[in-house]
Amino acid sequence: MNLNLPDETSTHSRTTLVQTGGAASALLLCVGLVVWLGWLVLREIDDFSVANSDNLQWSLAQADVEFLQFRLAMKEAQDNPDAMEDVRRRFDIFYSRMVTMSSGRVFHALRESVQSSAPRMRVLDFLENTVPLIDGPDDVFLAELPALLEESEQVTADVRAFSLAALTAFAEVSDSRREGITELMIYIAAVLLALFIGLTLLAYAMFRLFRLAQKRADALQFASTRMKTIVQTSPNAIVVTDEVGVVREFNTAAEALFGYTRAEAVGRLALELMVPADTLARHQLGALAFLDEHRRPRLDEQHFEITLQTRDQHLFPAEISADRAEADNPLYVFYIRDISNWKEAEEQLTDARDRALAGERTKSEFLAVMSHEMRTPLNGLLGAMQLMRDHSLTTRQSDLLDRMQSSGRLLLELVNDVLDLAKFEAGKMRAEEAPFSINRLLNGLMETAQPLAQTYGNELNWRWCGPEGDGAIGDARRLRQVLLNLVGNALKFTRDGTVEVEVEYLDAAQTEIEFRVIDNGIGIAEKDLARIFQDFETLDSSYAREAGGTGLGLGIARRFMRLMGGEIGAESEPGEGSLFWIRVPLTPSEDVGAVPEEPRDCPDKPQRPLDVLLVEDNEINRFIVREMLEGEGHKVTIAENGQAGVDMAELHRFDVILMDISMPVMDGTTASGHIRRGTGACAEVPIIALTAHALPEERERFRKVGMTACLTKPIERPLLLRTLAQVTSGEIPALPDTPAPAAPSAPPVLTVVEPSAEAPADPAHGLLDEERLRAFLSEVPRAAANKLLERFFAEMDRNIAALAETAPDDPDLAPVAHQCAGSCGPFGAEALRRALGRIETQVKRGEQPDKAELEALADLWQQSRSALEARLEAA
Amino acid sequence: MFGLPPLRALVFLAACAVPMASVAVTADEALPAPAEEPLLVVSGAITNTNVGDTATFDFDMLEALDTRTFTTKTIWTDGDQVFTGVQLSDLMELVGAEGTEIKATAINDYAVTIPSEDWVDGGPIVAFLNHGEKMPVRNKGPLWIVYPFDQKPEYQTEQIYSRAIWQLDRIIVLD
User: Fold this and answer.
1) Which of A704, A437, A712, A759 is nearest to A593 (CA)?
2) Which of A251, A245, A261, A262 is nearest to A228 (CA)?
3) Which of A90, A455, A674, A846 is placed for a possible disulfide with A73 were both Cys, Cβ 3.0 to 4.6 Å?
């Protein structure tokens, strides 16, 4: 409630401590005073309770009187000797008095000076001298009597003097004693005063404490009332339980939410009241476990969602904030909110979003598929047109063919653009990371764009600004596409001018590079500058209409730049020219890439029909490769194993040999070795290895036995055709260089192009490679495809069951796995193919695959088969 | 209890408890006449008399009575004093005192009043021996009413001190 509370409390406690200390010392002082005073008083009481003195004054006066009586008796005895006895008695009495005054406590109080004063001494002397006379015979005494009387005259004065001196002394003693008592009284008065003051202070302190306590009690009362009001008026249900979960507080909102009144709820177990019975019965407290463990919920346990039930057994989702108030009797506080509506809304939103996303994706996929599908026939048309030029044509026909070709290329460009866009939107595009040469890229660019530059009478060149560089790691293909687009645009909008490409590193570490494409063409108005990077935007100008285009180029360029983490921008002055720039982060590299980014000099497919020997044991693969090649007009001869291949190559000179690696009887590597070492017809013919997954050490082995290139299964038609073109045109020498271990990445070992690199298989959805399957279905006539699939299913059912049973150290394991993997390839059963590939790799490396992995194959196959069948039905 | 007055019962009990070796004079016997010079004359409201209507005691008579001896300090003497004498209560019993107080007078005519509350067993004695010696008049003799001050501190008051009369020679029992 009060954030200052801790400080205030500490101040209070300090004050209280000081007060307590003060009070304690004051009390101690008081007790000391009282004890001291008590001791004084007791001593005085003790003194008074035991009387120490007789009536002294009387005694002293008596001494006088008794001496006088003695003298009177003596005088009487002068006349009447019979009075002698009285004289003796009076003497004795006086003697006794003096003795008494010499001894006893009473007289010790007298000062020494009084005790030893001359008058007393004289009296004592007189007594001692007189005793013999008194005790002697009467006649002697009578004879001495007159002298004695005379002497006693003098002694009377002494007795009086002594009495007076003693009286004075006693008066002093008495005075000092009274002074002592007065002093004591003053002490008592002082202490009483001190006590009174002390008591007053104490009373005041008590009063203050009382007021303070009252104030705190009031504050507490107020806080408590306020809390109660807050709790009661809270729109959320608030339930407070004690440590064992018994409800202590149940607010109005809770009453409304759960249907129990406060009186019903308080005293019952919260869990029984609000948590569904079956949850309790199963001991699945889950988020409420802390309650069961009697501890404070951890931070991550304080907010959770849970299903609760109301009084009429209605279940609802609830959001709970819980915490434990630590005290002598810990309390759990739960804020409970019914989130049924929220949940519902959330579900609806999620549904809506999912539907929207799915629709978007479907659209993109549709676009991608359509574009892809359109490319194939377009390529066919363009190819056919090219072939038409081999025939003699009239000028008119030639003109028409020019237009057709021009239109066809435009259409192809359009389709390619849309495909890029669709792929990007479908999220299937990833930037590649490979070393390349910036210089080579730009040189190639110049070469490609040169014809266009000449068309418009433009001068085209490029140069480095600042320090020059070369090697970099990045996506060279897309970078080239973007630059080509910019250069193309510049050229199209410039007549008889110059287009220059400037390259400059933006930092010393060469991690960011800028390319500027500068022209002195017509320029772009400022208002259009922002617009040109939008999709389907074309500027309305005569040039633009002349140049044509989809208006996608810059949109795609922008996307590619974003994909590569770069930027694109433009500046322009109408009539003066334009400057388009891109900035790309690139990792500098020493390696400039071994393979030219674009095999420009080499056509995408062999320029003439080839005579091909296909050495392949897998019937399905055999069929597909044959379909691919024969479809292109090539002649295919089949050998079913390595030995058969060697035999055939001995006799007939083929243009190229496609050699599977794992085969019964004789494997591909051995067969290739035989062919190369032999003197047969094909000793120097290019041999292309076909392998499902080529390990680096295997590739090295292929190279050593003299194989020309290596293709990764599943075989893709374009790659196959391009590779065939490369090896037959001599771009890749048929015979690799003599073994050069220092350069394992030398050109002869063909880069292994992974199929569908642009769409890496997502392990969760990678059961089937849709594209591959689609390619298969489009490449293979339906009847043949069905037949193949039937055989594939039968073969896999048998082999996978066998594999699942096979011991991990069985020597048959690797070949069977290999065969199955090979069969999977064409049908796009990616996941299974990969799993089989892993097992094969493990065996090849001398490791034993996991038994569980083998057993998992059966499941995987069943899933793959179901997916395939579903897909086929849909087709 | 036995139909006796409390005081008598007390004496009776004391007598039973402490058998006397000497010839004890009891209240019922007639007092013999003093053979020597009298030391103490008790007069007034008494029933047991020997000389006229007084009870007169000489030294031997007192010595023959049931005596008590105790040691105490007094404010008039130095050091412990051993006193021997007849308990006042016993004496009053003997003379058949019927009053509520006595007036004790000394040779020098000093006089005090002692109420009957003081005549109790364990109370004051009429001492005639100090340290086993007779007391001369020169040293507060011949008789001295001494309270057992040390035994009973409540006797250490000025009033009691004033009652401790020395050179005693007359007692008058007052009604």
Assistant:
1) A437
2) A251
3) A90
Residue A719 near residue A689 (C-beta atoms within 8 A): no
* Placement of tokens 């008083």 in the chain: A41
Query: What is the ipTM metric for this complex?
Result: 0.77
Question: Alpha carbon of A124 to those of A67, A93, A108, A119, B138: distances in Å?
Answer: 12, 14, 17, 9, 13
Distance from CA of A56 to the nearest CA of B (A): 11
As a CATH number, domain A611-729 is 3.40.50.2300
Partner-chain contact B156 A103, CB within 8 Å:
no
Please give the distance of CA A20 from its chain centroid, rounded to a whole number: 50
Domain chopping of chain A, boundaries: 56-200, 234-338, 345-424, 430-588, 611-729, 770-874
Place of tokens 């108030």: A325
A148/A126 Cα distance (integer angstroms): 9
Is a pLDDT exceeding 90 seen at residue A349? yes
Domain ranges of chain B: 34-174
Across the interface, whether the CB atoms of B161 and A92 are under 8 A apart is answered no
Q: Could you tell me the pLDDT band of residue A794, with boundaries at 50, 70 and 90?
A: confident
Model confidence at A875, in pLDDT bands (50, 70, 90)?
low
pLDDT at A503 > cutoff 90: yes
Q: Which fold has domain B34-174?
A: Sulfite Oxidase; Chain A, domain 2 (3.90.420)
B75 touches chain A (CB under 8 A): yes
Fold for A345-424, please state it: Helix Hairpins (1.10.287)
Interchain proximity A96–B76, CB inside 8 Å: no
Q: How far apart are the first and last CA of chain A?
A: 70
Side-chain-side CA neighbours of residue B53 (13 Å): 8
Determine whether domain A234-338 maps to CATH 3.40.50.720: no
Estimate to the nearest angstrom the gap between the alpha carbon of A875 and the chain centroid: 48
How far apart, in whole angstroms, are the C-alpha atoms of residue A682 and residue A650? 6
Do the beta carbons of residue A301 and residue A287 sit within 8 Å?
yes
pLDDT digits (tens, 9 = 90+) for B31-65: 788 888 888 999 888 888 888 888 899 888 888 88
